[in-house]
Specification:
With 110 residues, the protein is mainly alpha-helical. The protein is built from five helices and two strands; from the N terminus they run H-H-H-H-E-E-H. The protein has a two-stranded antiparallel sheet with strand order 1-2. A hairpin with a 2-residue loop joins strand 1 (69-74) and strand 2. Helix 2 crosses helix 4 (53-65). The longest helix is centred in the N-terminal third of the chain and has 21 residues, at 3-23. The model has no long low-confidence stretch (mean pLDDT 95).
Amino acid sequence: MNSYKTKNTKMQGAYAMFFTTLANNNRLRIINLLRKSGKLNVTDICKNTKLEQSLVSHGLKMLEYHGMVFVKREGKCRYYSVNEQTIKPLLDIIDAHMKQYCCKIIAGEI
């Protein structure tokens, strides 16, 4: 396999991994909550999303693994926050795109 195909295959896999991580409704709810609320612990995330602790913990683990959220220990608590450098600006751009196109499609305006 030549280097172009190898690079292209790796990038396709990376895109699939990235968008699959965000396509999960629970993880998307968690990351959007963190975007709006700043740093939160699992208990706060559970209260705000009405998700069970195990779902929140699994979702945070995936988001952290993919660099979408970061965790910081403060005493006995672990606080999670969205990756401000890459993920927050990217999601802000996605929000603008959705408002311009996707929301209009759903509303039957396009």
